[in-house]
Write a structure and sequence with these properties.
Elements (H helix, E strand, L loop, with lengths): L1 E3 L2 E3 L22 E5 L11 E5 L5 H10 L2 H5 L5 E2 L3 E2 L17 E4 L2 H5 L12 H6 L13 H12 L5 H14 L1 H10 L1 H8 L3 H7 L1 H4 L6 E4 L6 H7 L7 E5 L16 H14 L6 E7 L5 H4 L14 H19 L4 E4 L4 H11 L5 E3 H21 L8 E4 L3 H18 L3 H4 L3 E5 L2 E2 L25 H8 L3 E4 L9 H9 L5 E4 L11 H7 L5 E4 L6 E3 L2 E3 L2 E2 L6 H11 L6 H13 L3 H5 L10 H18 L12 H7 L11
Parallel strand pairs: 8-10, 9-10, 9-11, 11-12, 13-14, 13-16, 16-17, 17-18, 18-21
Antiparallel strand pairs: 1-2, 3-4, 3-7, 5-6, 14-15, 19-20
Helix pairs in contact: 5-7, 6-7, 6-9, 7-12, 11-14, 12-22, 16-17, 16-23, 19-20, 22-25, 23-25, 25-26
Protein name: Malic enzyme
Function: The chloroplastic ME isoform decarboxylates malate shuttled from neighboring mesophyll cells. The CO(2) released is then refixed by ribulose-bisphosphate carboxylase. This pathway eliminates the photorespiratory loss of CO(2) that occurs in most plants.
Family: Belongs to the malic enzymes family.
């Protein structure tokens, strides 16, 4: 506590920017006055002082700001220049070889308010708010609603012909007006999802150094080894619920993009807020920069990361362990840590190592598996039979392929009661060396070994399809155009309705296009892809292209963990999430050949998934937010972040 001009205020060093504390929807929010200064000793605890003023008047604001005398901070910097203008910041009196203290006095009003993305409303500030918050003259006189702002932004977005320009426009909006960004994304999710995430985010990561403007999230590199807890404390928000972290080694199907992989955590967390209702201030994107083996990036003058070869072994594991320990120490046991786009050799190890001590989730392994299983459960209504009646063949035996395969085997085991070792035998995987068979087991990585069945060696996918005769063909290879005409025609020759899932991202890496799948199967296949394709017309009929997008699962899954206060992730949570998603596929969707529901209903879908995940957490004894709410769906919906503007007093 401290006093300003005779009044007592709260001392809060949690944030260096204005914040409006949440209130009920029946009350308006009070602005905050912030007196921010960076002391020369550089200690985080001394970085800023935030002052909460419950009923701020212009007189109080003027008193508060005038009471912070520049002379008390830096007497030597004060001088009179330019005809009586005080150089209170020392900008004119200092030379380049002199040290000054970069102190500021700001108010959550006027010019600064228009540049705070958390509270800026642009032309939506009302006449009363403009008077109360020193905005007269800083805005044109017109007052417009948030709905008109959304309409205008979508009109502008549609003028861009290049997807990357749309991506950059969305990122600029997020940095300028956070609530309008999320309102725009929620109201136009089907159109904008490919812009803020796959496939456009892939190109954005490739060019991240060139388009980099405003830093988002935390960049933790080898330079911060031994100081990661201190770095976490630099982040202004303290109540973090979800962290998405990548080391950039396997960004989508694009390979090692190093530090430029930050676009993935930023994009994922945008979807956590828009689709799952996790408040943006509770989300933290993190990139662990251990270098890159991408020679092109190392030679790129615009590259923003460490210019060194990628760290491995003990150096790598020690940095990751320090990060995981620091996160738990700083944010507690219930913070969800989502691993994203780690290479296979690290992804499985990290999930196994920290799955018993942290609340961790790998979207590439578990999220992909859950969304694909949901599509298969829904597809059974079209092809008939139970999951155990089908044969599955994968192209790709990495984290996505083996993750999907394992969850399918778990679901079959759950439905039939058969041992997991037996249900795995219905699933076959092909990697770069051909069909995974028993005779190769000594040379296989540990995560591939459960899928080594008795069979003669087969070197390529086309021959494997003819031999195994699968009813379901799944691509997770990251290799584009590998489902050839021969392969699709073979699938169609022994299946009335072959299920073909080309899951690799971005679009350029998809195993086949929607048009190829429908035409080569004569319109009989059930198709879904990882990235979106336009509807296909074949023989006078239009076939919509379904998308097996992880965004169906992870936002609701994360919300379910948060509202239950779960401390660990369990496989059964993934299974119930799949079942909940499959239940959202309507008869009308199935008649069109779609095995996923429209994204226009994604917030309701996420609430249903969250409720089922939370329920399972309570059943398993992993929930800590007791007692369990009576109606978990309604509770999940009530916890969702709303991007609608708030009224300021």
């Amino acid at each position: 506590m401290f006093a300003v001009n005779g009044s007592t205020f709260l001392n809060n060093s949690l944030s260096g920017v204005p914040r409006v504390f949440p209130r009920s929807t029946q009350r308006v929010a009070a602005p905050l006055v912030v007196v921010a200064a960076v002391s020369s000793n550089g200690r985080p605890g001394d970085r800023n002082v935030s002052v909460l003023v419950e009923n701020t008047s212009k007189e109080m604001v003027e008193s508060a700001t005038s009471s912070s005398s520049p002379s008390a901070i830096d007497k030597e910097a004060k001088s009179t220049v330019g005809g009586g203008v005080e150089d209170v910041y020392g900008e004119d009196s200092a030379t380049e070889d002199m040290h000054i203290t970069p102190w500021t006095v700001t108010v959550a009003s006027g010019y600064q308010l228009l540049r705070d993305p958390h509270y800026n409303k642009g032309l939506a500030f009302t006449e009363k708010e403009r008077d109360a918050h020193f905005l007269r003259g800083l805005l044109p006189p017109g007052v417009v609603s948030q709905e008109i702002q959304v309409k205008k932004m979508m009109h502008n977005m549609r003028q861009y012909q290049v997807p990357l320009q749309r991506y950059m426009a969305m990122m600029d909006l997020q940095e300028r007006n956070e609530r309008l960004f999320y309102k725009l994304l929620i109201d136009n999710v089907e159109e904008l999802l490919p812009v803020v995430y796959t496939p456009t985010v892939g190109e954005a990561c490739q060019k991240y150094g060139s388009i980099f403007r405003q830093p988002q999230g935390l960049f933790i590199s080898l330079k911060e080894k031994g100081r990661i807890l201190e770095v976490l404390k630099n982040w202004p928000e303290k109540k973090i619920q979800v962290i998405v972290v990548t080391d950039g080694e396997r960004i989508l199907g694009l390979g090692d993009l190093g530090c430029q992989g930050m676009g993935i955590p930023v994009g994922k967390l945008s979807l956590y807020s828009a689709l799952g209702g996790i408040r943006p201030s509770a989300c933290l994107p993190v990139t662990i920069d251990v270098g890159t083996n991408n020679e092109k990036l190392l030679e790129d003058e615009f590259y923003i990361g460490l210019r060194r070869r990628r760290a491995t072994g003990q150096e790598y594991s020690e940095l990751l362990h320090e990060f995981m320990s620091a996160v738990k120490q700083n944010y507690g046991e219930k913070v969800l840590i989502q691993f994203e786009d780690f290479a296979n050799h690290n992804a499985f190890d990290l999930l196994a190592k920290y799955g018993t001590s942290h609340l961790v989730f790998n979207d590439d392994i578990e999220g992909t598996a859950s969304v694909v299983l949901a599509g298969l459960i829904a597809a059974l209504k079209l092809v008939g039979g139970a999951l155990a009646d089908h044969r599955f063949l994968f192209l790709g035996a990495g984290e996505a392929g083996t993750g999907i395969a394992e969850l399918i085997a778990l679901e079959i085991s759950k439905q039939t009661g058969a041992p997991l070792e037996e249900t795995r035998k219905k699933i076959w995987l092909v990697d770069s060396k051909g069909l995974i068979v028993r005779s190769r087991i000594e040379s296989l990585q540990h995560f591939k070994r459960p899928w080594a069945h008795e069979h003669e060696p087969i070197n390529n996918l086309a021959d494997a399809v003819k031999s195994i005769k699968p009813t379901v063909l799944i691509g997770s290879s990251g290799a584009g155009r590998t489902f050839t005409k021969e392969i699709v025609e073979s699938m169609s020759s022994f299946n009335e309705k072959p299920i073909i899932l080309a899951l690799s991202n971005p679009t350029s890496q998809s195993e086949c296009t929607a048009e190829e799948a429908y035409k080569w199967s004569e319109g009989r296949c059930i198709f879904a892809s990882g990235s979106p394709f336009a509807p296909v017309e074949y023989n006078g009929k239009v076939y919509p292209s379904g998308q097996a997008n992880n965004a169906y699962i992870f936002p609701g899954f994360g919300l379910g963990l948060i509202i239950s206060g779960a401390i660990r992730v369990h496989d059964e949570m993934l299974l119930v999430a799949s079942e909940a998603l499959a239940e959202q596929v309507s008869h009308e969707n199935l008649e069109k050949g779609l095995i996923y529901p429209p994204f226009s209903n994604i917030r309701k879908i996420s609430a249903q998934i969250a409720a089922r995940v939370a329920e399972k957490a309570f059943q398993l004894g992993l929930a800590t937010r007791l007692p369990q709410p009576e109606n978990l769906v309604r509770y999940a919906e009530s916890c969702m972040y709303s991007p609608n503007y708030r009224t300021y007093r």
